[in-house]
Design a protein that fits this description.
The chain is an alpha/beta fold. It has 16 helices and eleven strands. β3, α8 and β4 form a beta-alpha-beta unit.
């Protein structure tokens, strides 16, 4: 198992992933329960039927899974609300000038975030590449066309080692050379006229292992040697070096929407999917007007390094609508709903011999269900249990804990039923 920014890789056996394609054809004229339009059933039997008969299974023979996990791109990302989907469908019917659309959407997003400017990108990674590109090139067209092979001296990205993670290769993809610094003293010593950007990771302030939120007892608190984002912002400001803060995975509970913009970050990166609830393939780069404009020159529909990072007109509109909804959302009640589901699932598993289902607070501040079992009663390894849950019907993706933030109302009952049946059958004490 490996850890990266978006989450944990789960590997299932070949049997769990082998799907026959014979006889699978799209169902003409079928309704779309679960599209976010209010017709999503809450009855477990009806939900289980949907998981057996849906657009993925009919069209391609791919079985969806119950998302008892974090927003993870490789497991499908997140879900959009009906208003977002409807806005995207309407946007599909009209053609617009993409430069005009990106400019107008950026202005609307910047207003929501309290920044000077913003740019819609093709996901958080894309926003990181474009932010780094903007810091490298400014608005110089010759430099824009030179990337990813800058020839000028100012091309280093300074990162404290504890703020590094797998996806910071985005800065290298733009053409930067990453320079690591272990300590504060080392950080200051390596800050020079060659430094084009300082990169900081919002998550590093709350845990040293970069991963989706984990139970508090699992996490190692960051030591005093880990520099805070605000500390790096101050250093960057004093040296006239822009600071980019990646907070792509931290909403809604890790940080506030405008927290680091208010703290003076020159650029911030936010995922358009995940907590925002927009298209999974969208992202936001926001901050200083000059740097965002420089990033825009590197981005599609221009022919710079970001040309291949296209964002469709529908995705841009969907992201704006999702952000509008996010800003107005009662986050406290929203998160409380996740915890309510976790408590219901834990209570429903309480009497299974050999299994302990414990509600735990994670490093982002909301609650999950941690499953612990006695191997003398349930003779399965964790990896075996994960593989079997993904191979069964309906499939269930279980990573570290049972996480409820992606579940629609009623799906928690189906998750409970799936887990209860699975562990009851596996328990020799049943």
């Amino acid at each position: 198992m490996t850890v990266d920014r978006r989450g944990f890789v789960i590997r299932t056996g070949a049997a769990g992933l082998t799907i026959g394609l014979s006889g699978c054809a799209p169902g003409a004229g079928r309704g779309v329960p679960g599209s976010g339009s209010g017709d999503w059933p809450t009855d477990p039997d009806a939900l289980e039927t949907l998981y057996r008969d849906n657009i993925y299974t009919r069209l391609l023979g791919v079985r969806p899974h119950l998302p008892a996990h974090e927003h993870i791109s490789r497991l499908g990302g997140g879900r959009m609300d009906a208003e977002v989907i409807a806005a995207m469908a309407e946007a599909n019917e009209f053609l617009v000038d993409m430069h005009e659309l990106l400019e107008a959407a950026g202005a609307r997003i910047a207003e929501r975030l309290g920044t000077e400017a913003a740019l819609v990108a093709a996901g958080g990674f894309s926003a990181m590449v474009l932010g780094a590109a903007g810091c490298l090139t400014g608005t110089d067209p010759e430099r824009v066309h030179a990337l990813p092979l800058p020839t000028w001296p100012r091309r280093e990205c300074l990162i404290q080692t504890q703020h590094r993670f797998g996806y910071d290769r985005a800065y290298r993809d733009a053409g930067m050379t990453i320079v690591e610094a272990e300590t504060r003293e080392d950080f200051r010593a390596k800050l020079s006229e060659r430094t084009a950007m300082i990169a900081a990771l919002a998550t590093a302030e709350r845990q040293t292992l970069f991963a989706p939120p984990a139970p508090v007892d699992w996490a190692v608190p960051p030591g005093p040697e880990v520099m805070t984002v605000r500390e790096q912002i101050e250093i960057g400001r004093a040296a006239d070096v822009p600071v980019l803060v990646d907070m792509a995975s931290d909403l809604p509970t890790g940080v506030g929407l405008g927290e680091f913009a208010e703290a003076g970050a020159d650029l911030i990166v936010i995922s358009g999917g995940k907590g925002i609830g927009g298209p999974q393939s969208s992202g936001i780069l926001a901050g200083r007007a000059d740097l965002v404009e420089a990033a825009r020159l590197n981005a599609s529909p221009n022919d710079g390094i970001g040309r291949g990072m296209k964002v469709g007109k529908e995705e841009i509109v969907g992201l704006v609508v999702a952000l509008d909804r996010y800003v107005e959302r009662d986050v406290e009640s929203w998160v409380a709903g996740w915890s309510d589901m976790a408590h219901r699932i834990a209570a429903g598993l309480a009497d299974i011999p050999g299994l302990t289902a414990k509600v735990v607070t994670n490093t982002a501040g909301y609650e999950d269900v941690e499953l612990i079992w006695d191997p003398g009663v349930i003779s399965l390894s964790t990896d075996e249990a994960k593989a079997a849950l993904m191979a069964g019907e309906p499939r269930l993706a279980y990573l570290m804990t049972v996480r409820t933030r992606l579940l629609r109302e009623g799906e928690d009952a189906l998750v409970l039923r799936r887990l209860r049946n699975f562990f009851t059958e596996a328990s020799t004490g049943a």
